[in-house]
Each structure stands twice: as C-alpha cells, then as structure tokens.
Amino acid sequence: MAGIVPKEFFVKVKEKGLTAILAAFVLLAFLYAWINPILESPDAIWHFEYILYLAQGKGFPRYTGTSLPMLQEASQPPLYYLLAAPLVSLINVEDKPRVMEPNPHAAIGLPLYPYGNKNMLAHCPGERFAFSGTVLAVRFATIVSILLGAITVYFSYQAACVLFGRKSPLALLSAAIVAFNPQFIFLSASINNDNLVTALAAIIFYFALAFLRRAPSTRRLILVGVLVGLVAITKLNGLVVALPLFLSLVIVALRNRRFSDFIRWVLILSLAASLTGGWWYVRNFFLYSDPTGLKVMFAEFHPREHPPSWQETLYLFEGVRKSFWAVFGWFNVAVHSWIYSVLDWWMAIGLAGFGLFLVTAVWGKEREKFLPWLLTLLWAFTSLFALWLWTQKSYPQGRMLFPALAAFSVIWVKGWTTLLPGRLGKWFIFFSALALEALALYSPLGYIWPAYAPPPLIEESQIPASLSRLNWTYADSIKLLGVEIWPQSVKPGQALNVRACWQVLRSPDKNYSLFVHIWGRGGVIPGGKTLAQVDTFPGLGSLPFRCIPPGKVLCEVYPLRIPPDAEAPAKLTVEMGVYDFYEPGRPGLKAMDEDGRYIPLGIVGYAALEPFEWPSLPPEAVPLNYRFSDGIKLVGFSLEGDVLKLYWLAERRPTRDYTVFVHLVNEKGEWVAGFDGMPMGGDFPTSLWPQGALVQDVRKLTLDGLPPGEYTVKVGLYFLETMERLAVEGPDGPVPEWAITLGRIRLP
What we know:
Elements: H1 8-35, H2 44-55, H3 79-88, H4 96-99, H5 133-164, H6 169-179, H7 182-188, H8 194-213, H9 218-232, H10 242-256, H11 259-288, H12 294-300, H13 310-325, E1 327-328, E2 333-334, H14 337-363, H15 367-391, H16 405-419, H17 423-452, E3 457-458, E4 468-474, E5 478-486, E6 489-490, E7 495-504, E8 513-519, E9 532-536, E10 553-561, E11 570-579, E12 591-592, E13 598-599, E14 603-609, E15 622-628, E16 632-640, E17 643-650, E18 659-665, E19 671-674, E20 694-700, E21 709-719, E22 724-725, E23 728-730, E24 733-734, E25 740-747
Parallel strand pairs: 6-14
Antiparallel strand pairs: 1-2, 3-10, 4-5, 4-12, 5-7, 7-10, 8-9, 8-11, 11-14, 12-13, 15-16, 15-23, 16-17, 17-20, 18-19, 18-21, 21-22, 21-25, 23-24
Helix pairs in contact: 1-5, 1-6, 1-17, 2-3, 3-5, 5-6, 5-7, 5-8, 5-16, 6-16, 6-17, 8-9, 8-10, 8-15, 9-11, 10-11, 10-15, 14-16, 15-16, 16-17
C-alpha cells in the first residue's frame, strides 16, 4: 500500500479534509432532519415546548406542582432554549395542536415491537414538505442544533491536533470518527440540549489539552471559566468537565512548580464560571430548595425505586453501547445486529491498543508523552462514571457520553495506530471512517425512512379479490370494506395475519384508533383477556384517519402472534373495531352494516388453533369405526359415570359447522333426554378441523330427575340450520336413523 499511494496523498487530504468533513456532516445532518419526522427523537417534544415557552415571552418555567408543557424538561437550565427561541418566535405556531397531536400507541423504547408505531406524534405524509407554522419552527430550531454539531466536529479536530500534531492526518481522521457517527448526526439533526453540552465540552476539552502545552493566560482562564459557566446553564451533566479540567491545571502547576499560580488559576476560572452560570442554581435554591432542580425532574419523571443490580447494569449498558452509534427514533429504530457486533470489535481493538500505549508510555517513563493521554482518558472515564451515577436513578442512553465524544475518538485512533503502526494504521482508520460515513448515509434511507413510511393508498376498485366484504361504517366517516384472514390454521407461537381495507368517507372529527383482537376458547368475553391484540392508528401508526383523503382506501396487514402457551385446539375469533382512545372506558364506535343494522360484536372471521401434535386415542377409550359424510369419523368414546368423551377424527376438512346430539332412550325406545351442542362447546367447530385432527369432545350428561332404569346412549351429527342428520356408516353398513348406539346406562 505504501508503494502504491504516495506520502503526499495524506498531506493533500489534510489540507482540504476538514472543510470536506464539515460539509459532509452538515449535508448529512440536513438529510436526517428532512427524512426523520419532526420531533421523533428522545425528549424532542418537550425540548421544543421549552423553546416555545420562552419564544412566547412566558419567562423561565417555574414548577409549582402542576405539569408544564415541557414536563420534566422544566428542570433544565435554559441556555440551549434561549439560543433557539429568537428564531422560533418569528413563526406563527397556531397549528401546533394538530401538528403535535400525540400517538397514544407509540412503542417507545421497543425496537422489536412488531406493530410499527415508531412515531410519538401523528404525522401526515405531506408534513415533510411543509415549510410553515409549527413545522417551520421546528426546522429553525433544528438549524441551531446542526450548527452546534459542526462546532463539535471542528473542536474535536482541534483537540486531536494538540494530541497528534497539526501535520498528522490522524487528527483529521479523529474528526471524521466524530462527524460520521450516525447517532451523533441524528442527535445534531434534532432538538435536544445535549447538542450544546457536547459542543461546549469539545471546546473545553481542546483548551484543557492546550493548557498542558502552555500555561494558561488570564484571558484564556476567563474564557474557559465562561465556557464552564455556559455548560452549567445548559445541562447538569455537562459539569463533569470540571474534574478533568481541574486535573489539567494540577498537572501544569506540578510540572512548572507554580503552586501559587495554581490557586490563582482556580480562583479566576471558578469566579468566571460562577458569574456566568451560578445565578441559575441560586434561583433553583430559592424556588425549590434544590440548586440542581432534580426535584422538579423527578416530580414529573419518577426515578427508579432501587438501583439496578450489576447484571441489570450490564444489560442497560448494552443499550448504551448500541445507542452510542445507531439507535434512532424514540430509542426504537435499530440497525442490523451484525453492525453492532462489528462496532463492538472495532472499539475493543482500539481500547486494547490504547491500553498497550499507556503501559508502554509509563514503562518508558515518557511523562510528557503520557500526561495529555492521561487527561484524555480521565475525560472519557468521568463521562462514563457520571452515566453510571445516572443509571442508579434512571435509564441511560449513549448520547449521554457525547460530552466526551472527542476524547473517545482520539483514544480509539491512538489505539489502532499503536497496534497497526505506520501507514497500515492510517489506512485502517481511513477505511473505518469511510465505512462509518457509509453507515451514516445509509441509516436515514435504509432504517429511518422505512420505519415511518406510510403504506400506499389505493382506489376501492383495486382492493384484493380475496377480501371478504363487510362494508361496516363507523361514525358516518370510516368504512371497513372487508377483511382477509390467513392462514386457515396456526399453532401456538405462530402469527395469524389479518388484512383489513379501510376507506375514509369524509374526514373524521378526530383521529380514531382501531383494534384487532384475537380470542381463544370461550370466544369474545367483554372485559376478558385476548390471546393477541393490536391497538393502533391506521398504517400501524404512520397514517392516521384524518390524513387519508376521502374516497381513498388503505389496506394493511396486522400479523398477530399467538402466545406459545395458548390452549389448543381452539377456534380463534377475530374481532375488529374503531374507538376514541381518550373516551372514558373506550366503548368503541358503533358499526353499522349496509342496511343500517347495528353490528354488536365486530367479529370479522375465524381461524383454527391447532396443537403441535394431535393426540392418539387413549387406552381407556373404546375404539369405534363410524364414518360420517363430509369427512368426519367417530373413532372412540369413554363413559365414566355421567361424563361422556367422544373422539372425532377429521379425514378431511369438513365444509360446515355440525352439531353433536347425544340422546338417552328408555327401554321402550322413547327419547327421554338430549345433550346437543357443538363439539367442545363451540370452542372448536367442525369447519375448522384440519385433516388428521383428533378432537376430544367432553360432555356431561345431566341424569338428575330420570327414573330408575336402563337407558341407551345414541350419538350423531346434524346441520342446525336444516336439522338434517349426517349419514353415517359403521362396520355393518349404514346406521339406522343415522344415530350410533354407544352403550347403556343403568340408574338405580
């Protein structure tokens, strides 16, 4: 490789590289901001509410026990919001209630949730191209975040130059690792005060490293003190920069034996920081008797009752590791799992190499070489420790480590070049940065866009011919045209697919929710527990009813997975309907058919739930060989006291639902009692029996009140609508009256 590519290549790349990296970052950030629906990132809704609160001249939020629009974010220091408020104040946001309508079915923090609903808000398809009202206000606030992200990239480069030297391409590659982190781009393209904390931390990191090269001047100390103060009025976790910054001053004082200067430096820096940001903490103390304001946060966002165990902490940090690189949306849009594995190894190699470098530096007593990297390590470790402390109270995310993003990038780069010295290490980092950039480019197109893309709308003439037409109307505005259910039978743990086609007749007065419920044995039981269900806006959350033009049709599939422990065999009853999520009790809208008749239950179809293996005839059963028409065979029975068990075999799937009759006949041949009913009490009707099914049908014979004597038990099948019995043949030919004699019961 060294012979193929001249040394001047790296020099030329470096000359224009930073500009190219910054330009690529900004373009990617705008791409993310355009593709990702507005405010679909962690806490963005409440950060935007804070900005609006200031933009509307309401002053700083003051919590008095009643929830404010920004909820727990009311506790946050105000600087980030003050930066965005002037731009947002220029926009009329009277459409905010419509644009920011919540999706009550949002699957927050559930990347594997099978029923969509990645969106926290109800978005309409045209929103991405809207440049007015609330959408424009969000775009303006997002521009502030993108600029802050660019500042982070720039000062990450400057910090890397201090460590590697300005002539080294490693500084540029370190900046590329920061700039092309997909999660960092995603955060920079959203509304979040972490963007300002990350930018300020990168600037302070640069100055802390610079202090090690040259003792700080008073002017620089004041500047850094102001920066620390700005961090303090941006977000509480940003104050972690104070410890490594203090260490850098300690190192300089010890190295130069300037202990009196050290006290002066600390006083200057502390005074500048206190004058810049201390007022906010004084305010909180007088308002809440809590300088940090965490009491306000935890009044709205309840902390954990108990700290996590070490096992749970390791599990939580798996989420931190993934969301450091690429978990989008509201922590619910993930990339392919193999990408996380590659990144894990990539980081592990860098950390191993960095550890080797530190050991070598200490062993070789290269203090000047070691100290800047010790500070860098402490910078990263301090952020990790702060995140661990937060984990004791709440749930961590990878973005909380971004104040040390510049430190992490140079640590990995140093580690890789330690293990792979010379050109090989540089090429490894170069191609790593290219791969990261490719992932950053693919993520909005391959992961974010599909997560929120609404299904296509069609005309009524285009609905599938396989659909069973229903034409049920709800609130004179929504019509369920029809339903298709497949496969005809499933086993526990498998999915039953329900396709429904909805048509909007006129724009409804609100965004109604729809439900699909699957019931098992016992059928629809009001207030009972379903086997599986999905409650959602149409389009699995991506296309609310009010966003569907009148006359258009939406057809979508709901794959409902049956629990592995569901009782089988059983009839699966599929129920559907429409309801107002916010109506007390959620009774649902009345469904009316084409003739204006009320549909009470909303049952749209059935399917069979089969066991994994059909049982064989038990040894206590008496074997029989009676074959009915329509593919049904009676292969055995048992009679113990007043409990009769019939064993039916389906030689093929029957075409109808048949009723079983069990009659008691006295010694004169007269009917004295009957026990008619569908097999298994209707829980598994014959039309659902698959070929090869052996169905046990248990019946209790009520014998109370019958006079003493001997009674003959006769059984058979009939079709209820016509009362016509099914023909049956036994070993000796056709059975008289199509009624099989099983045996006799003697009552004393």
